[in-house]
Amino acid sequence: RGKMAEGRKNGFMRGTAILSASTLIVKALGLLFSIPLANFISAEGMSYFYGAYDIFTIFLVLSTAGLPIAVSRMVSTANAMGRRREADQVFSVAFWLFFAIGAAGCLIMLFGSRQISELLGKPGAAGTIVALAPTVFFLSITSALRGYFQGRSNMVPTAASQVIEAVMKVAVGTGLAYYIITYIGSDSMAAVGAIIGVSVSSGLGMIYLVFCKLRQRRKDRELPEDGSAVSSRRDMMFSLLRFAVPITLGACFLSVLDFVDSAVLMDRMKTAAGFTQDQADYFSGVLGNARKFFDLPGAFVVPISTSLLPVLSGAIVSGDKPQVRHISSMSMR
Prior knowledge:
By secondary structure, the protein is mainly α. Helix content is about 85%, strand content about 0%.
């Protein structure tokens, strides 16, 4: 039992270190993405870029806020009890649920882009919303895969996929935006090019995780057959949703509030302050650039909570109360 407790502690620290390092790399690469864009795309063009992100964030939260946490918790609990087949079935149920949510979000953004952009007060953002739509689907699948690996306390696939996404976003997104500005001279099209880079990078990150899952499945086939009973897929679905819905609603509220705040701000600038559409877009773009730095500190809390959940769930299932208190105290510090 002492060795298990030490293993959980080491797993938590190792997972936190891996994800913190990847977060640092991702944020550094994010600056290499955001700062050049803000320098060669006008603030009006960046307003379209951030307008797409305001919509995207809502769908992203719906597909990635609570469900990956629920997947991670259920997979880690099953693994702690030696039920490998149950852990695999949790992933299977979650995968198809994420698939449906991601596909729905993608279709809404594709076919409702004009209506959404007008509701936001940024008619010029319709193109960027369409360009970002595939990312909702890619990240939904990615979230199911990350939740599975995190539940097994394997943070390497998550960290590596994040770095792949960040590198390709800089290479493709910045490259496309620069090419469009240089040879076409359209700020709105350059914003679309930058967004295409985001979609491409998300797709490549998803493909990497799919290969990791296939490799993991081959390794698991070499292990002794797990003869434990498995809950029905219906029961697993309800368990996932029961755990995920409260978390998702809480997180989604903040994203919806950001969307409403942005729409109200655009309306007040045009009606109360008397700004033209171009002037309102300009100041909205400037605000979006500033918010990139405002969101930076909170990103480093995520690796701690992500690494904490599977380790803590395993300790709780094992009935190791001293280890639960120790891990909780260590994560708070």
